[in-house]
TrEMBL record, chains A, B, C, D:
<feature type="domain" description="HTH tetR-type">
    <location>
        <begin position="12"/>
        <end position="72"/>
    </location>
</feature>
<dbReference type="InterPro" id="IPR054129">
    <property type="entry name" value="DesT_TetR_C"/>
</dbReference>
<dbReference type="InterPro" id="IPR001647">
    <property type="entry name" value="HTH_TetR"/>
</dbReference>
<keyword id="KW-0238">DNA-binding</keyword>
<dbReference type="Pfam" id="PF21943">
    <property type="entry name" value="TetR_C_46"/>
</dbReference>
<protein>
    <submittedName>
        <fullName>TetR/AcrR family transcriptional regulator</fullName>
    </submittedName>
</protein>
<dbReference type="InterPro" id="IPR050109">
    <property type="entry name" value="HTH-type_TetR-like_transc_reg"/>
</dbReference>
<dbReference type="InterPro" id="IPR009057">
    <property type="entry name" value="Homeodomain-like_sf"/>
</dbReference>
<keyword id="KW-0805">Transcription regulation</keyword>
<dbReference type="InterPro" id="IPR036271">
    <property type="entry name" value="Tet_transcr_reg_TetR-rel_C_sf"/>
</dbReference>
<feature type="DNA-binding region" description="H-T-H motif">
    <location>
        <begin position="35"/>
        <end position="54"/>
    </location>
</feature>
<dbReference type="Pfam" id="PF00440">
    <property type="entry name" value="TetR_N"/>
</dbReference>
<keyword id="KW-0804">Transcription</keyword>
DNA sequence: CATGAATGAGTTTTCATTCAT
DNA sequence: TATGAATGAAAACTCATTCAT
């Protein structure tokens, strides 16, 4: 008489299923609009399971933020510091990062767009997650901008600024990518590179930079 | 039997007050978390007034989006195309835009961060508002990158990419500004300019740009 | 600057306008669904006027009930007791009553259908109004069923029963009339008369009436 | 933290309880005046349950209409077409119908009085329900007015008119019954029968029926 | 472990009614 | 007199969360 019960799975697996589903749903409709029931449904389980495993909607969202921040950080770190030396240059690093953002819309949307806009209960957690991402991208910038000899040519502060620009640009440009299916993350980075290398110095001639 | 009534003000004034309050509250807690009552309170009136004048929470939010999009567009347009000639160069234009974002946190937060993350009911309106902003910044980029002779050196597509980068960067960097009270929008643009002009070509030597 | 004000009309006229509008609106959507604003609009005046003249929505509805009950009673009375003798027979009286119901949908709907279904605040008023109508129809039945010599052939109690049947039937059949535009109140009464006179005794042969 | 919960009952049972309570409450105060909370209270459960099971106040009302229409139809049908032949005569059928109306005030009030007066959202459903009832009573009239040999003596149209009269009369007379506790549905039908059989032909002599 | 049943708390929305001009 | 501006009170509906089985 009881409705069919889900197969018993080890806790770890179940949790991953839930967070996967939650990221998917949250990214589509946002934290408030997503109901726990909807998420449970998307994970193929019943509502109380979410509470048993994750405790509350808030904790579930937090778990999503953590996991997705981990994924960004891991991805970038793995590319920039592969187990063995040859560190990537700046543009190669950016390419990896852009590709992640473009290929993982749900992750990025939850992490960068939704998490940010939630107020109090998450402020702290979100800041921490963001800082981890920023730190990682900053590290990538630092690594990518050393002179052949190893000297740094951008200060820590400037490196962070560049990291933030990269993050904001990735976010903003990933929308552009969606609207331009004829382009790819790679072709986009190429464009940006060209603009930075060639364009900047040239189109700037008529506009005196601050002395 | 009715409680003491507010001072009577003409509709136009009250509507502006409401939208002001709504932008403030929405920017702080987001669309869903903000209750109409809270907004009414912040505007110094009672809830039903919001419904009498604006119709619904949804329409109120839409009104905020429209007005704030207008403000960004107006600000940028006024700076770039002053009634009289001397158009601004790229960096001067960016400076105006950055300043707006930094000086109007609430507007920008609602427009760029919150509006985006709201799903269906707003998708269309938001897209329209965003496109207006993008178009304006793109125009600024185009205007700011002409050669002295007037020839364009960036294609339309690239101009829009630069505009999107500027927008994403402004958004991202305005957070950075908050965390660095010793800096200002102007000093920040100076840094970015320096990085773009001087840095790019130099720190790139070790990393071959795509051929 | 002030919106155009309605022409000043004597109180009596204004009140009639309001009640006319109210009957119209109430009959269409019912007491609760009708908003005072809607009624004021239908009467071509502003909301506060309704309160100044009638005091409250409740009193406005009560006024409608009274007036419409008066109209039914007057109509029937005028037909049955014309200033001078020749009283009408039963069927002629019914014909008058049916015609009123059919020709005054709004009045009847408010009086018989809506007023009835409103609970407490109106119970008493409604009962009184209904009783006046019932009394009048009963009087008509009594008048219409005297023998040529003047003796009564239906008891008071039976006369009231017949009156109630007539009222319920008029209500029920006026719906039927709406669905059968090829018929008229008169043709309907003819049918009913035929059924009563000819049919009843005949088709009843196979079904023994209670001994 | 949640208050004490009601005994757990299967959905089917709860739904019936809700509709029972709703019919009771709606019949007493009408659709608009009845609050969902009040109905939930009358059913011994909390408001959200009504929404979980029935979806909306509108759907709840519709469910009431359907169920009560079913009950009238079933009652009449069962009496008129018992599993085995001897169909009832007209008066016996009416007696069954009158008894239902008198014994099920709430059902009848909701079905005939309240449902009618509700405008748009219900118009269609109500019409359908009413038509089912009318059709059943009409069938009863047809069955009850056949000659011993089986020939029909009333046309379809006239049968429906008689059905409508019966319905309107039942509605109207059931009020009368309430005011006359010394009478019963049966005694009332007896009176009506007498009036129809004996009275009609007699008291009519002085009033010429239409030629 | 898993889930159907149940609810407290809160939100948007509407409307009769009043007041200031 | 007449009306635009304003609000208290209440109703429909939703949802995170819990408990009994």
């Amino acid at each position: 008489m009881a409705g069919k019960q889900q197969q018993r799975l080890p806790r770890e697996v179940r949790e991953r299923q839930m967070i996967d589903a939650a990221v998917r749903v949250f990214s589509q409709v946002g934290y408030h609009t997503a109901s726990v029931e909807e998420i449970a449904g998307a994970a193929g389980i019943s509502k109380p399971m979410v509470y048993i495993y994750l405790g509350s909607k808030e904790r579930l969202f937090t778990a999503c933020i953590h996991r997705e921040a981990d994924r960004v950080v891991e991805t970038v770190r793995a590319a920039v510091h592969p187990d063995e030396p040859p560190e990537l240059g700046l543009w190669s690093g950016l390419r990896v990062f852009f590709r992640f953002v473009a290929d993982n819309r749900d992750s990025w949307t939850v992490l960068y767009q939704h998490a940010r806009t939630q107020g109090e209960p998450f402020a702290k957690e979100v800041r921490a997650a963001r800082n981890r991402v920023i730190a990682e991208i900053t590290a990538m910038v630092v690594a990518g901008t050393r002179m052949p000899g190893g000297e740094r040519i951008v200060s820590e502060r400037d490196a962070e600024i560049l990291a933030r620009i990269a993050i904001g640009a990735a976010d903003s440009l990933s929308d552009w990518l969606l609207e331009h299916p004829d382009e790819s993350p790679d072709s986009l980075v190429d464009r940006v590179t060209d603009l930075a290398l060639v364009g900047v110095e040239r189109y700037n001639t008529g506009d005196l930079p601050p002395s």
